[in-house]
Amino acid sequence: MTAMTPIRHRSAPSNVDRGASARVLLPGTIAVVVGLTALLPGLAHAGKCLFISSYHRGYEWSDGVERGLRSVLEGKCELKQFDMDTKRHKELEHQQAKALEAKRLIESWQPDVVITADDNAAKFVIQAHYKDHATPFVFCGVNWTVEEYGFPYRNVTGMVEIAPIQPLLDKVKALQPVHGRAIYIGANTHTETKNLARFADAAKRNGIDLDARLVDTADEWLAAYRSAQQYDFIVMGSNSGIREWDEERIAAAIVPESKRLSITSHGWMMPYTMLGYTKVPEEQGEWSGKAALSILDGTKPSDIAIVPNKKWDIWTNTVLLTASGITLPDHLLSKSKKIP
User: What is the pTM of this model?
Assistant: First the structure.
C-alpha cells in the first residue's frame, strides 16, 4: 500500500450505528459517562498491563490494534501480550483451551488491568471467567454490540467496533442510479456472520436486496466473485479465516473479472476492492490504552462508558477501477488513499 497520511473522518454513528451504540451505552445501569481526555492523569501510576489478542501477530487488524495500544502504554506500564490465535484455529476446543491458558497467566502474573481485542477474548475469557471480578478489563474490537456477552460488568469497559455501513451505502447510491441488488462475500466465520447481519439490516432499510456467500476456501471465494458480477454492486467482507488464500494469486485473478463496483469496510481487503471506508484499528488500541491508564490511576471501569469507534479512512483501488471501466468523482479520488 502507498504510504500516505490517512484521510480520517469522524461522524456520528449511522442509523445502524446508532442502534448499536444505544445498546452499548450501559443499558439498565447507572454510569458516569466521562470523556477519556478528562480521565487521563498527568502521570499514570506504574502497573502491569496484560494484552490478550483473540488472533495472531501478522494479521493486519490485530497488528494495528497492537500498534495503537503500544503507542499509548509503552513506558507507562509493564506490558505483556498473549495471542489466542483463534482466527487460524477456529475449533471450540482450541478457543476454550487458549482462554484457560490466558486465565492461568492472569492468575500467575496478576496484572493490574487486562486489555482484550476482538470477540473471542471477550467471550471465552471475560464472559466465561471474569464477570464482576476484581480484575479490571478493557475490551476493544467487539463487533457491533456487547449484548451477547452481557456487558457491562462492574469490572469491564471498552470500545465496540462498528463499520461505516450507511456512509458506504450512501456513496454507492450517489455513484450509480441502479443499486437495487447486491451481494456480500466473506469468510464463513462467526465474525462475518455478525457483519453480514448488519449489512443485511442496512440494505433492507435502503431498499437494497442483499444476497450473500460465506465461503471456506480461496477457490470458493473466486467462484463467488465471478458470479457476483451479475449484481449491481459487491460488498466485500473479510477474507480472514478463508483457507488457501494467496494474496498475489487472488489479486491477479480478479482483475479481468471485475465489472461491478465493490466496496468494503476492511482495510486489508482493499487489494481486492474498488472503494473502501475502512475502520482504523489503531483507534481501538489507542482508546483502550488510555482507558487502561485511567484505571491504573484509580478510575473504576464502570465509570468509563462503553463507546463505538468514530474514525475511518477512505481508500480506492486504481488497478480494479481501471480494469472495470468504473469512474469515480475527482473529489473522491483526490482525498482517498490509493492502492496503485
Answer: 0.73
Residues 116 and 288 sit within 8 Å (Cβ to Cβ): no
Cell numbers representing residue 332 in the block: 473522491
Nearest to 194 by CA among 182, 186, 183: 186
d(CA 15, CA 33): 22
| 104 half-sphere exposure, CB direction, 13 A CA radius | 6
And the C-alpha cell for 250? 487472488
Residues 184 and 328 in one domain: yes
In angstroms, rounded to a whole number, what is the distance separating the alpha carbons of residues 133 and 142?
20
**Residue entry with cell 465474525:** 191
Whether the CB-CB separation of 306 and 31 falls below 8 Å is answered with no
Distance between CA atoms of residues 277 and 204, nearest Å: 20
Query: Same domain, yes or no, for 61 and 203?
Result: no
Non-local (6+) Cβ contacts of 306 within 8 A are: 24, 25, 26, 146, 151, 152, 157, 158, 159, 160
Map residue 33 onto helix, strand or coil.
Answer: coil
Q: What is the CATH number of the domain that holds 292?
A: 3.40.50.2300
pLDDT in tens, 119-137: 999 999 999 999 999 999 9
Residue 250 lies in a domain: yes
Task: Tell which residue, 163, 209, 218, has the closest CA to residue 187.
Answer: 218
pLDDT digit string, tens, across residues 182-219: 999 999 988 899 899 999 999 999 999 999 999 999 99
Domain that holds residue 171: 165-279+313-339
Yes or no: say if 315 and 155 are a contact pair by the CB < 8 Å rule.
no
- Taking each helix axis from N to C end, the angle separating 190-205 and 165-175, rounded to the nearest 10 degrees, works out to 50
